[in-house]
Design a protein that fits this description.
It holds the Pfam family Glucosamine_iso. The chain has 230 residues and is of the alpha/beta class. It has eight helices and ten strands. It binds ligand LXAUTJHC.
């Protein structure tokens, strides 16, 4: 079962989560000389990424990448890369090495091999994977009812291409095996709607119904969840 950290506001949760990530990254750098952090996109991570960018980390030793990416130009408002560049990779944190999940290929399926190659060159396992969760229970870009979901949950590959059934843009996503192979899995949720989905996921049931269960209902890797009431 995950360890839960409960807060009243998203700001309090973000500040606490940023501090926890910074401590673990600093420990990883001290132990191995380099640390890796894969973050989610969407709306939820903005405050934590902004808070993290102000933490005293040796940014030159940090590799930052994404848990998933929408196949849009990196200047698009929908780009997860843009979010990371605007929030985390600011000031001293701009010294971190960013490994994108988007290439110039025409679509996600055509771009997958190049991204897989870039990811194969990273130090594995990843130190921290910061997950988000959609109101439909998707995490990364592992969407319920996506044609690629079964593959994303069972493939030993690290990356899959996905066409979400009910969300815009083709995606690349880490697979369940890549997520579960990380040293620490963190999940961040805020608000009553997401909390209700989280509680339903924890209560048990098929992973295919609520893919966030891949992280919550397993005991391979420790999972900590930061929950904000608002
Ligand atoms: O599309 C995505 O959605 C999820 C959840 O996003 P949020 O806006 O509800 O926080 C996110 O975790 C994922 O990285 C993103 O690509």
């Amino acid at each position: 079962m995950p360890t839960e950290h409960l807060f009243q506001t998203g700001g309090e949760a973000a500040a606490d989560l940023a501090r926890r990530i910074a401590i673990l990254l600093t420990e990883a750098i001290a132990q191995r000389g380099v640390a890796t952090l894969a973050v989610s996109g969407g709306r939820s991570p903005r405050p934590v990424l902004e808070a993290l960018s102000k933490e005293p980390i040796d940014w030159t030793k940090l590799i930052v990448t994404l848990v998933d990416e929408r196949w849009v130009d990196p200047v698009s408002a929908d780009s997860n890369e843009r979010l990371v560049r605007e929030t985390l990779l600011q000031g001293p944190a701009a010294e971190a090495r960013f490994v994108p999940m988007k290439t110039h290929a025409a679509d996600a399926y055509a771009g997958q091999a190049e991204v897989e190659q870039a990811f194969a060159a990273l130090p594995w396992p990843l130190d921290i994977v910061l997950l988000g969760m959609g109101d439909d229970g998707h995490t990364a870009s592992l969407f319920p009812q996506a044609a690629e979901l079964a593959d994303g949950l069972s493939s030993p590959a690290r990356i899959i291409s996905v066409t979400p059934p009910a969300a815009p843009h083709q995606r690349l996503s880490l697979t369940a095996s890549a997520i579960l192979a990380s040293r620490h899995i963190f999940l961040q949720i805020g608000g009553a709607a997401k909390k209700a989905v989280y509680d339903r996921a924890l209560a048990g049931g098929p992973v295919e119904e609520l893919p966030i269960r891949l992280a919550l209902l397993q005991d391979e890797t420790s999972v900590e969840v930061w929950i904000a009431e608002s």
